[in-house]
Amino acid sequence: MSIRVMVADDQDLVRAGLRMILDAQDGIEVVGEAADGAAAIALARRVRPDVCLVDIRMPVMDGLAVTRELAGPEATDPIPVVVITTFDLDEYVYAALRTGARGFVLKDSGPDLLAEAVRAAARGDALIDPAVTVRLLEAFAGTAPAPPRPPASPLTEREESVLGAVARGLGNTEIGDELHISLSTVKTHLASIMAKTGTRNRVELAVWAHERGARRRL
Description:
By secondary structure, this protein is an alpha/beta fold.
């Protein structure tokens, strides 16, 4: 079955371009468009897409508010959200990741990365554009009002290595190649790390890792 995607952006040409890119991908179908945040929330709740692709800057309600409503901790029936932006160092993007977004990509990232982000969100994973992962998280890590929660139990040496790779934006296959472990072993380590840190996906895990690293340097 195709992954059903809703696109929300206030620029007509951008929405048309995103629709064209996504509809051209195997197994992805755009099922709706919205031009502002309030319309995006209403449409998403009506058509229940598998993934919402949301611009971070929109009128009425911005992408941060949309993310909180659709994918935040208090959402009763959350829908995966991937935020898109023109700016790779934008505090609103970082806030969206903290609010529950499954990832973000730049608008000029290209069709392959855009499709990969949608597919990752649909399967319960998350993707941060690797071109800006480290700069984004290091720029804004440590700005949260409270320090990151400590792990429920200490991370093993291997888990620390996996955590560091996630924080650098590496995918599961890249982590396996770098650490010389199987894909299933990577997934097992990730599940254990998330359980210990109380994070819900690899985006939150990357944020947690960078916030902890920033505070250790203080």
